[in-house]
Specification:
Oligomer: single chain
Strand order of the largest sheet: 2-1-3
Helix content: 10-25%
Distance between the termini: 29 Å
Order of helices and strands: EEEEEH
Number of helices: 1
Mean pLDDT: 92
Structural class: alpha+beta
Number of strands: 5
Low-confidence stretches: none
Largest sheet: 3 strands, antiparallel
Length: 73
């Protein structure tokens, strides 16, 4: 995946897969922010509609600690 690629985005404060965006909203809308492959998060963004985890992003140190704590559960 290239740095400018994205399979998810943020709309209205929630993470969505590109295909799960509400009707009438697409990835080119001004209110949609892409979750780029080179972005860094404190957790893996998860789609609020289908639950898909977008683990193509990089995790911060806090994100790695969070994932390691929850990997045992």
């Amino acid at each position: 995946m290239k740095a400018y690629d994205f399979d998810a985005c943020v709309f209205d404060g929630e993470v969505y897969c590109n295909g799960c965006l509400p009707d009438g909203v697409d990835t080119d809308s001004e209110d949609v922010q892409p979750v780029f492959a080179d972005s860094e998060w404190d957790y893996y963004p998860t789609c609020c509609e289908c639950g898909a985890v977008h683990d193509y992003v990089s995790l911060t140190t806090d994100g790695w600690a969070y994932e390691n704590r929850h990997a045992d559960n």
